[in-house]
UniProtKB/TrEMBL annotation:
Superkingdom in the source lineage: Bacteria
Record-given protein name: Glucan 1,6-alpha-glucosidase
Gene: dexB
Gene3D superfamilies: Glycosidases
């Protein structure tokens, strides 16, 4: 049993959607790492 609860939005948040959206948090961090 995990000691941290899952995010309540876990069904709506996925990698496939993040990669399809250039404004997602994935791409935001990707740009920050490049700096």
């Amino acid at each position: 049993q995990p000691w941290l609860a899952a995010n309540p939005d876990y069904e709506m948040i996925d990698v496939q959607e993040a990669l399809a959206n250039p404004d997602s948090i994935f791409y935001t961090y990707h740009k920050l790492v490049q700096i």
